[in-house]
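Narrative of activities, Objective 1.

The group set out to show that a structural description can be obtained from nothing but a protein's sequence at a throughput compatible with the screening campaign. Below is one input-output pair from the validation batch, recorded exactly as produced.
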Amino acid sequence: MADFAFMDSGTGGIGYMMHLAKKYPQYSCLYLGDTAHFPYGEKTPEEIIACASETVEIMLERFQPKAIVVACNTMSVVALQALRSTFPQIPFVGTVPAIKLASNVSKNRRIGLLATTRSVRSPYTDELIRDFASDCHVARRGDPDLIAFIEHELYTATDSQIAAAIQPAVDFFSNEQCDTVILGCTHFIHLADEIQKAFGESVQVVDSRDGVVRQALRVLPDTENGSAGQLPDGMENCTFFCTGATAAQEAEYQTLSGKLGIRWGGILKKL
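Output recorded for this entry:
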């Protein structure tokens, strides 16, 4: 039984898993990307809930985790409540845009939200802004092209290709005079340093990694006693699985796993 299973529509949430594993190596983590249905950000709410529910069923059957981290902003803002209702036997931790954190650090009250198309249009995002950043101008940018670049091209891309992929978002938020930019899709964590460098010191780039890790430890059963779960036989900590891939995509994921220093577990077919 693994302590944590992380889920996303692709590879974006891997950064959240690695963040927890680095800070708390005593806990076991596995990752499942629903690559068969990538991207979630362009799907309807009903489609997102259905795909996310199938992914949870796979994880419960294969990994028996103690807790599930929904390491996907789109999945969290759209489907988290439905997942908790459908699977009440396991705690879920969501990942939502760090709007409260951005509001706390912004000086000029102009915030940028870089996310998926679905997340920037979500009523839940509207609610977060009303609750925590009502005095701020929040410029929203859905960027499916950058997400697709990170999912399929990042780990073979040159520095100039990465810079070119980032630049449209940098230009957008610079024109909006934002002094704080939220990485509201977990894919962007893979480029957090590069995005911060592109903006320079005048803009602070924020995300929700620390908050998600704190909440994950709070909901994990037996955390107070320091009881760590055991991974299924033959699995290493931070093993990465996906639900579907072409031969070319599988090669991409193997390259990604090697560069990140985590184990590639392979493709899990839908049950």
